[in-house]
From TrEMBL:
PROSITE patterns, per database record: ABC_TRANSPORTER_1, ABC_TRANSPORTER_2
Compositionally biased residues, Pro residues: 18-33
Taxonomic superkingdom: Eukaryota
Pfam families assigned: ABC_tran
Database matches in InterPro entries: AAA+_ATPase, ABC_transporter-like_ATP-bd, ABC_transporter-like_CS, P-loop_NTPase
Keywords, comma-separated and alphabetical: ATP-binding, Nucleotide-binding, Transport
Region Disordered: start-end pairs: 1-85, 282-354
Protein name as it appears in the record: TRIGALACTOSYLDIACYLGLYCEROL chloroplastic isoform B
Amino acid sequence: MRTAALQRPAEALAGRCRPPPAAALVAPPAPLPRRPRQPSSTLPQQLCRSAHRRQRLVAASAADPVQTAQQTAAAPAASSGSPEPEADVLIEFKDVWKSFGSKQILRGASFKIRRGEAVGIIGSSGTGKSTTLRLAAGLLQPDKGVVLIKGEPRRGLISDDDTSDKLKVGLVFQSGALFDSLTVGENVGFLLHEHTSLPQSKIQELVAESLGKVGLSGVEPLYPSELSGGMKKRVALARAIVRDEKHDNVEQVIMYDEPTAGLDPVASTVVEDLIRDLHEKHGEGHHHEPDGGSSTSSASSYAGSTSFDSLASANGGSPASANGRSRSSTAGAAPSGNGTSVTPLGALPAHKQPPPGGITSYIVVTHQHSTIRRAVDRIIFLHEGRVVWQGTVEEFDTTDEPIVRQFASGSLEGPIRYE
Ligand SMILES: Nc1ncnc2c1ncn2[C@@H]1O[C@H](COP(=O)(O)OP(=O)(O)OP(=O)(O)O)[C@@H](O)[C@H]1O
Protein backbone atom coordinates (compact mmCIF):
# COMPACT_ATOMS: atom_id res chain seq x y z
CA MET A 1 0.00 0.00 0.00
CA ARG A 2 1.34 3.38 -0.91
CA THR A 3 1.53 6.06 1.67
CA ALA A 4 -1.63 7.94 2.43
CA ALA A 5 0.16 10.96 3.77
CA LEU A 6 -0.70 14.19 2.09
CA GLN A 7 2.40 16.07 1.14
CA ARG A 8 2.87 19.74 0.55
CA PRO A 9 2.38 20.39 -3.17
CA ALA A 10 5.97 21.24 -3.90
CA GLU A 11 7.07 17.83 -2.66
CA ALA A 12 4.03 16.12 -3.99
CA LEU A 13 4.44 17.48 -7.44
CA ALA A 14 8.18 17.34 -7.79
CA GLY A 15 8.81 15.20 -10.82
CA ARG A 16 5.52 13.38 -10.43
CA CYS A 17 2.92 15.63 -11.92
CA ARG A 18 1.82 14.92 -15.42
CA PRO A 19 -0.74 17.03 -17.17
CA PRO A 20 -4.18 15.51 -17.07
CA PRO A 21 -5.31 14.01 -20.33
CA ALA A 22 -6.97 16.24 -22.84
CA ALA A 23 -10.73 16.04 -22.82
CA ALA A 24 -11.82 13.23 -25.06
CA LEU A 25 -14.41 13.76 -27.67
CA VAL A 26 -17.77 12.40 -26.74
CA ALA A 27 -19.88 10.18 -28.85
CA PRO A 28 -22.96 11.75 -30.41
CA PRO A 29 -26.15 11.45 -28.41
CA ALA A 30 -27.25 7.87 -28.04
CA PRO A 31 -30.96 7.33 -27.61
CA LEU A 32 -30.79 5.61 -24.25
CA PRO A 33 -33.91 4.23 -22.62
CA ARG A 34 -35.68 6.77 -20.48
CA ARG A 35 -35.27 6.44 -16.80
CA PRO A 36 -37.95 7.57 -14.41
CA ARG A 37 -37.41 11.16 -13.45
CA GLN A 38 -37.46 12.51 -9.98
CA PRO A 39 -41.07 12.68 -8.93
CA SER A 40 -41.52 16.37 -8.72
CA SER A 41 -41.35 19.29 -11.03
CA THR A 42 -38.16 20.90 -9.99
CA LEU A 43 -38.05 24.39 -11.36
CA PRO A 44 -39.24 27.45 -9.59
CA GLN A 45 -42.65 28.25 -10.90
CA GLN A 46 -41.50 31.50 -12.36
CA LEU A 47 -38.89 29.69 -14.43
CA CYS A 48 -41.43 27.21 -15.73
CA ARG A 49 -43.71 30.05 -16.69
CA SER A 50 -40.94 31.84 -18.49
CA ALA A 51 -39.89 28.69 -20.26
CA HIS A 52 -43.45 28.17 -21.43
CA ARG A 53 -43.55 31.71 -22.65
CA ARG A 54 -40.34 31.18 -24.55
CA GLN A 55 -41.57 28.00 -26.05
CA ARG A 56 -44.80 29.54 -27.19
CA LEU A 57 -42.73 31.99 -29.15
CA VAL A 58 -41.17 29.21 -31.14
CA ALA A 59 -42.63 29.02 -34.58
CA ALA A 60 -41.32 26.18 -36.61
CA SER A 61 -40.18 27.66 -39.86
CA ALA A 62 -39.49 25.37 -42.72
CA ALA A 63 -37.79 28.20 -44.56
CA ASP A 64 -35.14 28.98 -41.95
CA PRO A 65 -35.59 27.06 -38.74
CA VAL A 66 -32.19 27.98 -37.39
CA GLN A 67 -32.86 31.67 -37.80
CA THR A 68 -36.30 31.31 -36.26
CA ALA A 69 -34.94 29.42 -33.31
CA GLN A 70 -32.22 31.96 -32.77
CA GLN A 71 -34.73 34.77 -32.78
CA THR A 72 -36.87 32.83 -30.35
CA ALA A 73 -34.09 32.19 -27.89
CA ALA A 74 -33.09 35.80 -28.05
CA ALA A 75 -36.62 37.10 -27.61
CA PRO A 76 -36.88 38.99 -24.34
CA ALA A 77 -39.17 37.47 -21.77
CA ALA A 78 -40.55 40.93 -21.29
CA SER A 79 -42.55 40.36 -24.45
CA SER A 80 -45.01 38.49 -22.28
CA GLY A 81 -45.58 41.57 -20.24
CA SER A 82 -44.18 40.23 -16.96
CA PRO A 83 -40.47 40.79 -16.54
CA GLU A 84 -38.43 38.05 -14.93
CA PRO A 85 -36.88 38.87 -11.58
CA GLU A 86 -33.20 39.67 -11.92
CA ALA A 87 -32.29 39.30 -8.27
CA ASP A 88 -31.62 35.61 -8.59
CA VAL A 89 -29.47 35.70 -11.73
CA LEU A 90 -26.09 34.28 -10.74
CA ILE A 91 -24.37 33.99 -14.12
CA GLU A 92 -25.31 35.82 -17.29
CA PHE A 93 -23.81 35.67 -20.75
CA LYS A 94 -24.61 38.75 -22.80
CA ASP A 95 -23.86 38.48 -26.49
CA VAL A 96 -20.64 36.54 -25.90
CA TRP A 97 -18.32 35.89 -28.84
CA LYS A 98 -15.26 33.67 -28.78
CA SER A 99 -12.95 32.45 -31.49
CA PHE A 100 -9.83 30.34 -31.56
CA GLY A 101 -7.62 31.57 -34.37
CA SER A 102 -9.80 31.80 -37.44
CA LYS A 103 -12.38 29.47 -35.92
CA GLN A 104 -15.41 31.37 -34.67
CA ILE A 105 -16.94 29.30 -31.88
CA LEU A 106 -19.39 31.46 -29.94
CA ARG A 107 -21.39 33.97 -31.98
CA GLY A 108 -23.37 36.01 -29.55
CA ALA A 109 -24.38 33.51 -26.87
CA SER A 110 -26.79 34.95 -24.32
CA PHE A 111 -28.39 33.19 -21.36
CA LYS A 112 -28.93 33.40 -17.62
CA ILE A 113 -28.37 30.92 -14.84
CA ARG A 114 -30.54 31.62 -11.84
CA ARG A 115 -30.31 30.72 -8.22
CA GLY A 116 -31.64 27.24 -7.63
CA GLU A 117 -31.44 26.01 -11.18
CA ALA A 118 -30.21 22.68 -12.52
CA VAL A 119 -29.38 23.52 -16.12
CA GLY A 120 -28.19 21.31 -18.94
CA ILE A 121 -26.27 22.81 -21.86
CA ILE A 122 -26.58 20.62 -24.92
CA GLY A 123 -25.88 20.88 -28.62
CA SER A 124 -23.86 19.35 -31.41
CA SER A 125 -20.21 18.46 -30.98
CA GLY A 126 -17.92 21.44 -31.38
CA THR A 127 -20.66 24.00 -30.92
CA GLY A 128 -18.95 25.61 -27.97
CA LYS A 129 -20.41 24.01 -24.83
CA SER A 130 -17.12 23.40 -23.04
CA THR A 131 -15.90 26.78 -24.21
CA THR A 132 -18.96 28.30 -22.56
CA LEU A 133 -18.11 26.62 -19.24
CA ARG A 134 -14.52 27.79 -19.45
CA LEU A 135 -15.67 31.33 -20.07
CA ALA A 136 -18.02 31.13 -17.08
CA ALA A 137 -15.22 29.77 -14.92
CA GLY A 138 -12.86 32.53 -15.98
CA LEU A 139 -10.44 30.23 -17.75
CA LEU A 140 -11.09 32.07 -21.00
CA GLN A 141 -12.07 35.61 -21.84
CA PRO A 142 -14.71 36.60 -24.39
CA ASP A 143 -13.57 38.40 -27.52
CA LYS A 144 -16.77 40.40 -27.38
CA GLY A 145 -19.72 40.57 -25.03
CA VAL A 146 -19.72 40.12 -21.31
CA VAL A 147 -19.96 37.40 -18.68
CA LEU A 148 -21.70 38.71 -15.60
CA ILE A 149 -21.28 37.10 -12.21
CA LYS A 150 -24.11 38.23 -9.96
CA GLY A 151 -24.58 41.21 -12.21
CA GLU A 152 -20.96 42.26 -12.23
CA PRO A 153 -18.74 41.82 -15.27
CA ARG A 154 -16.02 39.29 -14.83
CA ARG A 155 -12.82 41.17 -15.39
CA GLY A 156 -9.89 39.20 -16.64
CA LEU A 157 -9.01 35.63 -16.04
CA ILE A 158 -9.07 34.03 -12.67
CA SER A 159 -5.73 34.00 -11.00
CA ASP A 160 -4.24 32.00 -8.23
CA ASP A 161 -4.87 34.69 -5.71
CA ASP A 162 -8.32 35.47 -6.96
CA THR A 163 -11.10 35.14 -4.47
CA SER A 164 -14.72 35.99 -4.64
CA ASP A 165 -16.93 36.91 -1.78
CA LYS A 166 -19.97 36.73 -4.00
CA LEU A 167 -20.07 33.51 -5.94
CA LYS A 168 -17.78 30.59 -6.43
CA VAL A 169 -17.89 28.94 -9.82
CA GLY A 170 -16.40 25.46 -9.83
CA LEU A 171 -15.70 23.43 -12.93
CA VAL A 172 -15.47 19.67 -13.00
CA PHE A 173 -13.67 18.65 -16.16
CA GLN A 174 -14.81 15.88 -18.44
CA SER A 175 -11.60 13.97 -17.89
CA GLY A 176 -11.70 14.54 -14.17
CA ALA A 177 -8.37 16.28 -14.67
CA LEU A 178 -6.85 14.28 -11.85
CA PHE A 179 -3.11 14.24 -11.47
CA ASP A 180 -2.13 10.66 -12.19
CA SER A 181 0.93 10.90 -10.05
CA LEU A 182 -0.87 12.13 -6.95
CA THR A 183 -2.99 10.01 -4.65
CA VAL A 184 -6.71 10.59 -4.44
CA GLY A 185 -6.19 12.39 -1.14
CA GLU A 186 -3.55 14.64 -2.67
CA ASN A 187 -5.76 15.36 -5.65
CA VAL A 188 -8.78 16.29 -3.56
CA GLY A 189 -6.73 18.40 -1.18
CA PHE A 190 -4.53 19.94 -3.83
CA LEU A 191 -5.87 23.45 -3.74
CA LEU A 192 -6.08 23.47 0.03
CA HIS A 193 -2.37 22.75 0.06
CA GLU A 194 -1.72 25.40 -2.55
CA HIS A 195 -3.99 28.19 -1.44
CA THR A 196 -4.48 27.88 2.27
CA SER A 197 -2.27 27.65 5.28
CA LEU A 198 -4.40 24.97 6.88
CA PRO A 199 -2.41 22.35 8.78
CA GLN A 200 -2.10 18.97 7.12
CA SER A 201 -4.31 17.31 9.68
CA LYS A 202 -7.12 19.76 8.91
CA ILE A 203 -6.70 19.26 5.18
CA GLN A 204 -6.90 15.51 5.65
CA GLU A 205 -10.07 16.00 7.64
CA LEU A 206 -11.65 18.17 4.92
CA VAL A 207 -10.56 15.75 2.21
CA ALA A 208 -12.11 12.84 4.10
CA GLU A 209 -15.31 14.82 4.58
CA SER A 210 -15.52 15.59 0.88
CA LEU A 211 -14.81 12.03 -0.19
CA GLY A 212 -17.47 10.86 2.24
CA LYS A 213 -20.02 13.07 0.50
CA VAL A 214 -19.40 11.31 -2.79
CA GLY A 215 -19.46 7.88 -1.20
CA LEU A 216 -15.76 7.23 -1.42
CA SER A 217 -14.58 7.19 2.16
CA GLY A 218 -11.15 5.71 2.70
CA VAL A 219 -9.81 5.87 -0.86
CA GLU A 220 -7.28 8.60 -0.10
CA PRO A 221 -4.21 6.36 -0.56
CA LEU A 222 -5.23 5.08 -3.98
CA TYR A 223 -3.93 6.49 -7.24
CA PRO A 224 -6.27 7.49 -10.07
CA SER A 225 -5.07 4.51 -12.13
CA GLU A 226 -6.47 2.24 -9.45
CA LEU A 227 -9.97 3.69 -9.77
CA SER A 228 -12.83 2.89 -12.13
CA GLY A 229 -14.04 5.60 -14.49
CA GLY A 230 -17.04 6.29 -12.28
CA MET A 231 -14.88 6.58 -9.18
CA LYS A 232 -12.58 9.02 -10.95
CA LYS A 233 -15.55 11.22 -11.80
CA ARG A 234 -16.65 11.13 -8.17
CA VAL A 235 -13.16 12.03 -6.98
CA ALA A 236 -13.24 15.01 -9.34
CA LEU A 237 -16.55 15.94 -7.79
CA ALA A 238 -15.13 15.60 -4.29
CA ARG A 239 -12.33 17.92 -5.31
CA ALA A 240 -14.83 20.47 -6.58
CA ILE A 241 -16.76 20.55 -3.32
CA VAL A 242 -13.97 20.29 -0.80
CA ARG A 243 -14.39 22.99 1.80
CA ASP A 244 -11.71 25.58 2.21
CA GLU A 245 -13.46 27.18 5.20
CA LYS A 246 -12.46 30.63 3.99
CA HIS A 247 -15.38 30.57 1.57
CA ASP A 248 -17.88 28.76 3.73
CA ASN A 249 -20.37 31.57 3.45
CA VAL A 250 -20.12 31.98 -0.31
CA GLU A 251 -22.73 30.30 -2.45
CA GLN A 252 -21.43 28.38 -5.41
CA VAL A 253 -22.34 27.20 -8.86
CA ILE A 254 -20.75 23.96 -9.99
CA MET A 255 -20.36 23.24 -13.67
CA TYR A 256 -19.90 19.67 -14.84
CA ASP A 257 -18.43 19.05 -18.27
CA GLU A 258 -19.68 15.67 -19.50
CA PRO A 259 -19.82 14.13 -16.03
CA THR A 260 -21.06 10.78 -17.31
CA ALA A 261 -19.11 10.48 -20.55
CA GLY A 262 -17.68 7.03 -20.96
CA LEU A 263 -19.57 5.53 -18.03
CA ASP A 264 -21.83 2.50 -18.23
CA PRO A 265 -25.54 3.18 -17.56
CA VAL A 266 -25.42 2.20 -13.90
CA ALA A 267 -22.28 4.18 -13.14
CA SER A 268 -23.92 7.10 -14.96
CA THR A 269 -26.94 6.87 -12.70
CA VAL A 270 -24.71 6.95 -9.63
CA VAL A 271 -23.03 10.14 -10.83
CA GLU A 272 -26.29 11.74 -11.98
CA ASP A 273 -27.95 11.14 -8.62
CA LEU A 274 -24.86 12.32 -6.82
CA ILE A 275 -24.94 15.60 -8.70
CA ARG A 276 -28.52 16.14 -7.60
CA ASP A 277 -27.93 14.89 -4.09
CA LEU A 278 -25.00 17.18 -3.48
CA HIS A 279 -27.30 20.00 -4.42
CA GLU A 280 -30.45 19.12 -2.64
CA LYS A 281 -30.72 15.98 -0.59
CA HIS A 282 -30.02 17.41 2.82
CA GLY A 283 -33.05 19.59 2.49
CA GLU A 284 -35.46 16.74 2.11
CA GLY A 285 -38.02 16.60 4.81
CA HIS A 286 -36.50 19.48 6.68
CA HIS A 287 -37.67 22.66 5.17
CA HIS A 288 -41.20 23.90 5.19
CA GLU A 289 -42.35 26.88 3.28
CA PRO A 290 -44.21 29.47 5.24
CA ASP A 291 -47.41 28.42 3.53
CA GLY A 292 -47.03 24.97 4.94
CA GLY A 293 -45.75 23.44 1.74
CA SER A 294 -42.59 21.46 1.92
CA SER A 295 -39.71 22.26 -0.37
CA THR A 296 -38.29 18.85 -0.16
CA SER A 297 -37.64 17.82 -3.64
CA SER A 298 -35.45 19.76 -5.76
CA ALA A 299 -33.65 22.63 -7.21
CA SER A 300 -36.94 24.43 -7.18
CA SER A 301 -36.85 24.48 -3.43
CA TYR A 302 -33.85 26.61 -3.94
CA ALA A 303 -32.78 29.47 -1.82
CA GLY A 304 -35.06 28.93 1.09
CA SER A 305 -34.47 25.27 1.49
CA THR A 306 -32.44 23.80 4.26
CA SER A 307 -30.92 21.66 1.56
CA PHE A 308 -28.57 24.55 1.25
CA ASP A 309 -28.19 25.02 4.94
CA SER A 310 -26.89 21.55 5.30
CA LEU A 311 -24.92 21.78 2.13
CA ALA A 312 -23.18 24.80 3.47
CA SER A 313 -20.80 22.35 4.97
CA ALA A 314 -20.04 21.04 1.52
CA ASN A 315 -19.09 24.41 0.21
CA GLY A 316 -15.52 24.99 -0.59
CA GLY A 317 -12.68 25.28 -3.02
CA SER A 318 -13.31 24.49 -6.58
CA PRO A 319 -10.19 23.33 -8.22
CA ALA A 320 -10.02 23.52 -11.90
CA SER A 321 -7.10 22.42 -13.90
CA ALA A 322 -6.46 23.69 -17.33
CA ASN A 323 -3.71 22.62 -19.65
CA GLY A 324 -2.17 20.60 -16.90
CA ARG A 325 -1.94 23.51 -14.54
CA SER A 326 -4.03 23.71 -11.47
CA ARG A 327 -5.85 26.92 -10.92
CA SER A 328 -8.33 28.22 -8.51
CA SER A 329 -11.67 28.22 -10.22
CA THR A 330 -13.05 30.58 -7.71
CA ALA A 331 -14.99 33.01 -9.78
CA GLY A 332 -13.79 36.49 -9.52
CA ALA A 333 -16.98 38.40 -9.86
CA ALA A 334 -15.28 41.71 -9.92
CA PRO A 335 -12.74 43.61 -7.96
CA SER A 336 -14.00 44.29 -4.49
CA GLY A 337 -15.80 47.49 -3.93
CA ASN A 338 -18.42 46.97 -6.56
CA GLY A 339 -20.87 45.60 -4.04
CA THR A 340 -23.82 43.45 -4.85
CA SER A 341 -26.27 46.15 -5.64
CA VAL A 342 -26.97 44.91 -9.14
CA THR A 343 -28.63 41.76 -7.89
CA PRO A 344 -29.66 42.52 -4.35
CA LEU A 345 -30.61 39.38 -2.53
CA GLY A 346 -32.91 41.49 -0.46
CA ALA A 347 -35.22 41.52 -3.44
CA LEU A 348 -36.00 37.88 -2.78
CA PRO A 349 -38.68 37.02 -0.26
CA ALA A 350 -37.29 36.10 3.14
CA HIS A 351 -37.93 32.39 2.71
CA LYS A 352 -36.06 32.41 -0.60
CA GLN A 353 -32.94 34.01 0.73
CA PRO A 354 -29.93 31.85 0.00
CA PRO A 355 -28.25 30.27 2.96
CA PRO A 356 -24.61 30.85 3.56
CA GLY A 357 -22.53 28.67 1.27
CA GLY A 358 -23.79 25.60 -0.51
CA ILE A 359 -24.16 24.53 -4.10
CA THR A 360 -26.83 26.95 -5.15
CA SER A 361 -27.11 25.95 -8.79
CA TYR A 362 -25.36 23.69 -11.22
CA ILE A 363 -24.78 23.40 -14.93
CA VAL A 364 -24.20 20.15 -16.76
CA VAL A 365 -22.82 19.90 -20.28
CA THR A 366 -23.82 16.53 -21.59
CA HIS A 367 -24.63 14.44 -24.63
CA GLN A 368 -26.18 11.70 -22.53
CA HIS A 369 -29.95 11.55 -22.65
CA SER A 370 -30.00 9.82 -19.29
CA THR A 371 -28.11 12.68 -17.70
CA ILE A 372 -30.43 15.25 -19.24
CA ARG A 373 -33.43 13.44 -17.83
CA ARG A 374 -32.06 12.59 -14.44
CA ALA A 375 -29.84 15.47 -13.49
CA VAL A 376 -31.23 18.66 -15.00
CA ASP A 377 -34.50 20.60 -15.08
CA ARG A 378 -33.93 23.21 -17.73
CA ILE A 379 -32.09 22.93 -21.02
CA ILE A 380 -30.14 25.51 -22.96
CA PHE A 381 -29.55 24.44 -26.55
CA LEU A 382 -26.45 25.81 -28.23
CA HIS A 383 -26.17 25.72 -31.99
CA GLU A 384 -23.50 27.35 -34.08
CA GLY A 385 -22.36 29.41 -31.13
CA ARG A 386 -25.74 30.79 -30.12
CA VAL A 387 -28.50 29.78 -27.77
CA VAL A 388 -31.26 28.70 -30.12
CA TRP A 389 -33.72 27.16 -27.68
CA GLN A 390 -34.36 27.04 -23.96
CA GLY A 391 -36.99 25.13 -22.06
CA THR A 392 -37.73 22.53 -19.45
CA VAL A 393 -36.84 18.89 -19.95
CA GLU A 394 -40.53 18.20 -20.47
CA GLU A 395 -40.70 20.86 -23.17
CA PHE A 396 -37.65 19.36 -24.81
CA ASP A 397 -39.75 16.27 -25.47
CA THR A 398 -42.68 18.12 -26.94
CA THR A 399 -41.30 21.15 -28.73
CA ASP A 400 -41.67 21.34 -32.49
CA GLU A 401 -38.44 23.26 -32.80
CA PRO A 402 -36.71 21.51 -35.73
CA ILE A 403 -33.19 21.72 -34.31
CA VAL A 404 -34.27 20.17 -31.04
CA ARG A 405 -36.31 17.49 -32.72
CA GLN A 406 -33.44 16.53 -35.00
CA PHE A 407 -30.99 16.49 -32.13
CA ALA A 408 -33.29 14.41 -29.95
CA SER A 409 -33.96 11.88 -32.67
CA GLY A 410 -30.43 11.74 -34.05
CA SER A 411 -31.85 12.15 -37.55
CA LEU A 412 -29.60 13.09 -40.44
CA GLU A 413 -32.42 15.20 -41.85
CA GLY A 414 -32.81 18.71 -40.55
CA PRO A 415 -31.07 21.99 -39.91
CA ILE A 416 -28.09 20.44 -38.13
CA ARG A 417 -25.45 19.62 -40.71
CA TYR A 418 -22.33 17.58 -40.16
CA GLU A 419 -19.43 18.05 -42.49
N1 LIG B 1 -8.01 26.26 -26.62
C1 LIG B 1 -8.45 26.01 -27.84
N2 LIG B 1 -7.72 26.29 -28.93
C2 LIG B 1 -8.16 26.05 -30.18
N3 LIG B 1 -9.36 25.53 -30.45
C3 LIG B 1 -10.15 25.22 -29.42
C4 LIG B 1 -9.74 25.45 -28.06
N4 LIG B 1 -10.75 25.06 -27.25
C5 LIG B 1 -11.73 24.61 -28.05
N5 LIG B 1 -11.37 24.71 -29.33
C6 LIG B 1 -12.19 24.34 -30.49
O1 LIG B 1 -13.43 24.99 -30.35
C7 LIG B 1 -14.48 24.16 -30.81
C8 LIG B 1 -15.53 24.06 -29.76
O2 LIG B 1 -15.00 23.30 -28.69
P1 LIG B 1 -15.87 22.94 -27.43
O3 LIG B 1 -15.06 21.94 -26.67
O4 LIG B 1 -16.31 24.14 -26.73
O5 LIG B 1 -17.12 22.26 -28.11
P2 LIG B 1 -18.22 21.33 -27.46
O6 LIG B 1 -19.52 21.84 -27.92
O7 LIG B 1 -18.01 21.21 -25.99
O8 LIG B 1 -17.88 19.97 -28.19
P3 LIG B 1 -18.07 18.45 -27.73
O9 LIG B 1 -19.52 18.23 -27.59
O10 LIG B 1 -17.50 17.69 -28.87
O11 LIG B 1 -17.29 18.26 -26.46
C9 LIG B 1 -13.85 22.84 -31.19
O12 LIG B 1 -13.69 22.81 -32.59
C10 LIG B 1 -12.52 22.86 -30.51
O13 LIG B 1 -11.57 22.15 -31.23
